Amino acid sequence: MKRYNVRMRIELPTVEGRLLKRYKRFLADVELPSGEVVTAHCPNTGSLTGCTPEGARAILRDSQNPARKLRWTFQTVEVDGTWVNVDTGLPNGLVAEAIAEDKVSELSGYPDLRREVKYGTGSRIDVLLERGDERCYVEVKSTTLAADGHARFPDAKTERGRKHLEELARVVEAGDRGVIFFCVSRADVTSFSPADEIDPVYGETLRRVVAAGVEPLAYATIVGPDRFDLGERLEIVL
Question: What is the pTM (predicted TM-score) of this model?
Answer without folding.
Answer: 0.93
